[in-house]
Amino acid sequence: MSAQPAKTLAESAAEYGLKPEEYDLIVKRLNREPNLVELGVFSVMWSEHCSYKSSRKHLGKFPTKGPRVICGPGENAGVIDIGDGQACIFKMESHNHPSYIEPYQGAATGVGGIMRDVFTMGARPIALLNALRFGDPSHPKTKRLVSGVVSGIGGYGNCVGVPTVAGETNFHKGYDGNILVNAMCVGLADADKIFYSAAPSPGLPVVYFGSKTGRDGIHGATMASQEFDDASDEKRPTVQVGDPFAEKLLIEATLELMASGAVAAIQDMGAAGLTSSSVEMAGKGGVGIELDLDCVPQREEGMSAYEMMLSESQERMLAVLKPGREEDGQRIFKKWGLDAATIGHTTDTGHMVLKHKGQIVCDVPLAPLFDDAPLYDRPWVATPAQPRLAPADVAAPADYAAAVVKLMSAPDMASKRWLWEQYDRHVMADTLEDSATGADAGIVRVHGTKKALAVTSDCTPRYVQNDAYEGGKQAVAEAWRNLTAVGADPIAITDNLNFGNPERPEIMGQIVRAIEGMAEACRELDFPVVSGNVSLYNETNGAAIPPTPTVGAVGILVDSTKRADFGGLKAGQTLVLVGETRGELGASMYLRELLGREDGAPPPVDLAVERKAGDLIRSLIESRQVTVAHDLSDGGLIAAAAEMALASSQGLTLKLAGDLPAHAALFGEDQARYLVAVDSADAVLAAAKAAGVPAAVIGVAGGDDLAVEGLFTLPLSQLRTAHEGWMPGYMG
């Protein structure tokens, strides 16, 4: 039997995700054919995951500056000023493909990776969030994926000792073949002690520290930039393996190393591992870098240069130290039991030079790797506009009580208590509110002060699917609203743009229009983008996920005692609906869960109205006139009222007025609205009138039922059983 011919480099390039014209461009940039190591380095740095080659043209539309922005996009994470010489550092990233292939490790290493992005800039992580999208609950893989992902998030975050305080979990058949796991980390640092990744000059030692390098995660960045097919399980070796206890040691060692004054530049080894960290440090600093791979701490025998450069083994860092400070570093690494070695130095050549076993195995200019990857202006077409649905276009329920029970026990609306109880939400003892306790945002106190940070993640993919521009606006507006509803002043966002294949014009149209909608909302709400991540090619066998541009947001409470939640409703309080209701039922939860339809234009977002209503709510919370508040989103008024009643164990009765049909008034998802509970409505109504914001008394708290006068009465106990029973019943 004849031996199979060896693959040509061009054939290998195609396997690594490089197109023929991209391979030709590499040859042109080098004036020669690359060797296998060089080809591997180019393939990961030119992957969609690392280069943003399809989206960078449009990402420039985001506003990225503001009075509180210290560092915007381009570093490991965004940095904002929160006063008193302190900074908040935060970012959100995807670990979608790894979590589908290997749910526990994929989700766990997503948590570990996003924490490294934050503490590599000098911040101690204080809060974690996640945004999870799973397939149809009836799909044969969904339950196993939910179990693995939730266990991975809890297993890693709990062991490291950082609380998971907020997030969202949705189910839809569009994610059957490609789930989304978006992880966000928020940290605190001194504003004058922020660390950056640019190597400042030639001649400085390059130090590796953390866990040893193994063969896990090789070509993880490439895999994250490709579509799935029926053979995707074969990509299991590209999923990294995490060790949260090593991460905890790495956090402490990194922060101590920074405090010692030895660090000139620092970068975590995330996607593309040693390749991306060394390329970014040298590239941002405008210097060269030379590494001796024989010095890299290795977990396995006989590792090649290719394997070491492309491994995505977890819990690893790369630092450029100041001259003569290696011994200080070694002392700290030894104290924390970490592997460490000086593996190279910065140079003045502008090249990346790699040596292995006495041979030069890579010598390439850094510019094409760092900032000169191919950039595409891909053709796009906008999603065809859907018509607005008038209330008359949507059937009313025959039985309102049954409709509310069905809505509140649907997978997206049902309680996620089963999930949240697997996360440690109160480690570090500074969590004031979390997603399990009845607040629209997680709230974490700045230790030892009255200040607190409010954090949330939001997106409504069904809106983006039907109108990417309005859906993009709404994702930002809802995040702004969730921070507002707890009394926080919204400061800035991070984004995680999850879409299908950008080479298809209809998908690229979703990307472009969603970014433009998000950018408009950020501008109008003074809510800049300071960091983010783009995750494309989220599809299997040509079927793309629903477009999901997730927004992670941070706000500040100067006095954390002046905050609101929706779990404090008391008998006798008056319910006031703030904002205008027109009965927008397009792309609504009611339409999907009760009628099996997903059509219609989503509710329009008027950002000027959004701003007026939000500013009013924050002023009412600041003056302590309001301590119970909930923003209206999925499911409309009746869902917000039901959640408020359940979180408070307190019945309430709504009274509808006006000409709007009852199903439109109750289930419509009009934006810029809040439900608040007050002891006396007069002052709130007067403040709303002065601010030019519609507001009306809508009901009263009391009794043991959720009721709408003249329409239905539903025992709260029955609603609770349905609402809290779905998830544990599903998971068994």
What is the structure about, briefly put?
This protein has 732 residues and is α+β, with helices and mostly antiparallel strands.
Describe the structure.
- By secondary structure, the chain is of the alpha+beta class.
- The protein has two domains: 222 residues, PurM-like C-terminal domain (Phosphoribosyl-aminoimidazole Synthetase, Chain A, domain 2, Alpha-Beta Complex), CATH 3.90.650.10; 304 residues, Phosphoribosyl-aminoimidazole Synthetase, Chain A, domain 2, CATH 3.90.650.
- It has 25 helices and 28 strands.
- β15 and β16 form a beta hairpin.
- α7 runs parallel beside α10, α8 runs parallel beside α10 and α18 runs parallel beside α19.
- The longest helix has 20 residues.
- The termini are far apart.
Topology:
Layout: H1 9-15, H2 20-30, H3 36-45, H4 48-51, H5 56-59, E1 69-71, E2 78-81, E3 86-94, H6 96-101, H7 103-119, E4 124-134, H8 142-160, E5 164-171, E6 180-190, E7 205-210, H9 220-223, H10 244-259, E8 263-268, H11 273-285, E9 288-292, H12 305-310, E10 316-321, H13 326-335, E11 339-347, E12 351-356, E13 359-365, H14 366-370, H15 400-408, H16 417-420, E14 431-433, E15 442-445, E16 452-458, H17 461-466, H18 468-485, E17 489-498, H19 505-524, E18 529-535, E19 539-540, E20 543-544, E21 548-557, E22 574-578, H20 589-595, H21 607-622, E23 628-631, H22 636-648, E24 652-654, H23 662-667, E25 674-678, H24 682-691, E26 695-701, E27 705-708, E28 712-715, H25 716-731
Overview features:
732 residues; alpha+beta; Phosphoribosyl-aminoimidazole Synthetase, Chain A, domain 2; 28 strands; disordered N terminus
